[in-house]
Design brief:
Structural class: alpha+beta
Helix content: 10-25%
Largest sheet: 7 strands, mixed
Oligomer: single chain
Mean pLDDT: 95
Low-confidence stretches: none
Strand content: 35-45%
Number of domains: 2
Distance between the termini: 17 Å
Shape: elongated
């Protein structure tokens, strides 16, 4: 079971929240508010609507993962989430992973999406052009 919420203004979608429920954990997969409606409390109202629905489906914890967007990081903190796990998303391009990954003959590597430990952050940022800190936020519901 999942929770899927859509906020509309007239005939325009202005916000969405969807969460996957695998009781006792609910994970926010997407929460987004149209730029014209940000900072209006819409994201908080979507969250407030999602929490009782997730509880009704057996969830006792809600989590979400996000990258280095200061606005998103601040919103989760202000919304009552605490910081959980962290790791790195590493996106390779332009041959950055050619000496890291091997492919079968006849297959070319265009790009790769990798995970790395935070302890490797400095090395990853020196080596790859797209490295992002991924943070888990957790809330007991």
């Amino acid at each position: 079971m999942d929770v899927a919420l859509v906020a509309v203004d007239g005939d325009e979608v202005v916000g969405v929240l969807d969460a996957t429920i695998r009781a006792p954990l609910a994970t926010i997969e997407t929460i987004a508010v149209h730029p014209d409606h940000q900072r209006s409390g819409l994201g908080s109202r979507l969250l407030a609507e999602a929490i009782p629905r997730a509880r009704a489906l057996g969830a006792t914890r809600l989590d979400a993962w996000t990258r280095e967007d200061p606005q998103a990081l601040g919103w989760y903190t202000r919304s009552g989430f605490t910081t959980g796990d962290m790791y790195l998303h590493v996106h390779t391009r332009d041959g950055e992973a050619d000496d890291v990954l091997t492919t079968p003959p006849g297959v070319g590597l265009v790009s790769a999406f990798l995970h790395s430990h935070l302890r490797e952050e400095e090395r990853m940022r020196e080596r790859f052009s797209r490295v992002y800190r991924c943070t888990q936020f957790i809330m007991t519901i």
